[in-house]
Amino acid sequence: MDTLSEYIWLILVLGVLAVVLLAALVVPRLRRRARPLPPDRSSSDDLLPPPPEADGRTTDAGTAVLDEPPAGPAAVTEPELAPEPEVAPAPELERPEGAASRLVRLRQRLAGSQNVFGRGLLALLSRDRLDDDAWEDLEDTLITADVGVAATTELVERLRNRLRIEGAEGTDLRTVLREELLTLVDPTLDRTLATQGADGKPAVTLVVGVNGTGKTTTVGKLARVLVAEEKSVVLGAADTFRAAAAEQLGTWGERVGVPVVRGPEGSDPASVAFEAVRSGVEQDADVVIVDTAGRLQNKAGLMDELGKVKRVIEKQVPVSEVLLVLDATTGQNGLAQARVFSEVVNVTGVVLTKLDGSAKGGIVVAVQRELGVPVKLVGLGEGADDLAPFDAGAFVDALLEA
Ligand SMILES: Nc1nc2c(ncn2[C@@H]2O[C@H](COP(=O)(O)OP(=O)(O)OP(=O)(O)O)[C@@H](O)[C@H]2O)c(=O)[nH]1
């Protein structure tokens, strides 16, 4: 029995020793595992600057995104190359028509559109006898062509005097009429566009007028004229009232590689104009052309806005040219517009558009007399290059070619 109890004691002692040994091995490991978690970064770390970008990638919240830790030799394998982004082919730029061929083409169109006017004049003057009725008919023809009453009276007076003094016999009526019409249109006016800025800054052209006269189209066409003359141009879409106007201008610019500065729809036109000019100065452009929204001359608020656009531009660069765009088909109404616009922004030149759709070329004379500023450009169609510098001699010849 004693031997048995000795065995039992021995087994118990060995068992206790085994348990103690096991405990000595396992507990430190468990302790190591049970270390407290690092503090929540979302609380205290938010106040710290974001850690340096370990691999250059940063989340939207500004925190660095770490890559997986390198895992042996596999980590140094070449990264898979991202496919090359597809580069859209640059749009092919158009080459605007040069001045010479444009003039020949548009002169014919002008003659075509004004043939009612010209033919009427020549038919009257080729009558056998120029009696009072004939002179009255001549006056009617000139007034219908929008020459204006004062200019018509003047022209008829001068013609009658010349024929009386020089004698109707042997006088080339066509030549006399040409001379008198030319005097009326005034070839001595300076019709050059100011495209040379002062002090190395761009020349700025502001384009104004009532709705739908063709301002945006004219700005686009004018940009092409200047590009054809190898000038660098920046366009400003300060017509923020009509979203389509900025789109339209964007397309005009794209076609000839001219940058267009735009603002959000409804934004302050003066700030868009300012930005356009700033960009023009920065890019060392030759000319900045600023398109404005159409406005009726009797809306005082809108006219004030136009004055502001000009003043804001002039904080950087003086405006060298204010072009008033008039629709030739609106006749005498255009004169009322001209008067008010001129008071607000000091118009320096007129662009007469849609002369291709009007037999009222006489408006050239009327508007020049009304404003005391020359018609500098004429629009003769909806085509991209259907804008021509106005030339008094060519204009009168076109009338009489009919
Ligand atoms: N036939 C003809 N159409 C022209 C001429 N100039 C402009 N147009 C047309 O006139 C329409 C109005 O032109 P826009 O340039 O949009 O006129 P806008 O003055 O900018 O218009 P708003 O911004 O609404 O004031 C367009 O259909 C042009 O194609 C021209 O010389 N001849």
TrEMBL record:
How is it placed in the membrane, per its record?
Peripheral membrane protein
Q: Where is this region: Disordered?
A: 35-95
Where is the protein found, in the record's own terms? Answer: Cell membrane; Cytoplasm
Q: Which Pfam families match?
A: SRP54 (PF00448), SRP54_N (PF02881)
Domain SRP54-type proteins GTP-binding: residue ranges: 374-387
**E.C. number:** 3.6.5.4
Q: Which domain of life is it from?
A: Bacteria
Known Gene3D superfamilies for this protein? P-loop containing nucleotide triphosphate hydrolases, Signal recognition particle SRP54, nucleotide-binding domain
Instruction: Specify the enzyme's EC class, one word.
Output: hydrolase
- Composition bias, kind Low complexity: at what positions? 73-91
Does this entry carry the keyword Cell membrane?
yes
Q: Which reaction does it catalyse?
A: GTP + H2O = GDP + phosphate + H(+)
Entries under InterPro entries matching the protein: AAA+_ATPase, P-loop_NTPase, Signal_recog_particl_SRP54_hlx, SR_rcpt_FtsY, SRP/SRP_N, SRP54_GTPase_dom, SRP54_N_sf
Q: Where are the transmembrane segments?
A: 6-27
Q: Which positions are annotated as binding GTP?
A: 209-216, 291-295, 353-356
Q: Keyword annotations for this protein?
A: Cell membrane, Cytoplasm, GTP-binding, Hydrolase, Membrane, Nucleotide-binding, Receptor, Transmembrane, Transmembrane helix
> What does the protein in this record do?
Involved in targeting and insertion of nascent membrane proteins into the cytoplasmic membrane. Acts as a receptor for the complex formed by the signal recognition particle (SRP) and the ribosome-nascent chain (RNC).
User: What family classification does the UniProt entry report for this protein?
Assistant: Belongs to the GTP-binding SRP family. FtsY subfamily.
Subunit structure of this chain's protein: Part of the signal recognition particle protein translocation system, which is composed of SRP and FtsY.
Q: What is this protein called?
A: Signal recognition particle receptor FtsY
The encoding gene: ftsY
